[in-house]
Amino acid sequence: SIVSLGEPMSKYTLLEELGQGGFGAVYKAVDTSTGQQVAIKKMTLQEDVSEELAVTEILVMWDNRNPNIVTYLDSYLVNEEVWLVMEFMDGGTLFDVLRAVYLEEGQIGAICRECLQGLHFLHSRQVIHRDVKSSNVLMGMDGSVKLADFGLCAQLTPEHSKCSSSVGTPSWMAPEVVRGEAYGPKVDIWSLGIMGLEMVEGEAPYQREPRLRVFELIERNRPPKLQNPRHHSALLRDFLHCCLQADEDWRWSTQELLQHPFVTSGEPVSSLAALIISAKQVQEEWR
């Protein structure tokens, strides 16, 4: 059994809801025996699909421990729900941060580096994330950056070295996914490039368009570019160009991108702490 036996309600006290998704909701909770804050993702098992997502997420987190991947703590089956217990990231999602503050290039470079380290680890273990975007990147008040949300991951094997199922979030999907072609780990690099645009512009390209229209635009158009390229450094422009190659053979790998000058010149993660504190202050003012 991949889930623990026992009654999580006796071990954890739920404090507040942190967010909702298609799978269910995430709560902040506290481990009553240690006082440790945790996050609990409650996933409703209504059909085979949701069960598969829950099992995938647990197995990927359980099997892939890394400083840039949210730490798995435990999981339980409670009635028709799976409760996934993981570390609590007190800075919230990158999506929330982007709505509140403007990022400088050195900070974007730092976030890209941390995400690339996590993706490099996954790709080296033949795992594709398939849903890289700002709402699936979590941050700590210390500036730490971690990948989350592994329900759509694919595990490649020697027999199945490519995927073909069209999954992900439309605006972040690579052209080969949209076209229904076989694809490999570099779909995550395209999504990271889109997330780079998101960090600069405040939103992903085509984000306001209907789903089918997004697919049409990704398939028909050249890779999206910065709205005002001259306002940004040549290094940032080149980094995005290396991520957003329509042909996956030309798209850089995690290993290559970790050596890219835009990434190597990124600030240390500690510099993100002040950014996250500012974002929290803005969010408090909105309430």
UniProtKB/TrEMBL annotation:
This is non-specific serine/threonine protein kinase. InterPro entries: Kinase-like_dom_sf (IPR011009), PAK3-like (IPR051931), Prot_kinase_dom (IPR000719), Protein_kinase_ATP_BS (IPR017441), Ser/Thr_kinase_AS (IPR008271). GO terms for molecular function: ATP binding; protein serine/threonine kinase activity. Residues 12-263 form the Protein kinase domain. CDD domains: STKc_PAK. Its EC number is 2.7.11.1. Gene3D superfamilies: Phosphorylase Kinase, domain 1, Transferase(Phosphotransferase) domain 1.
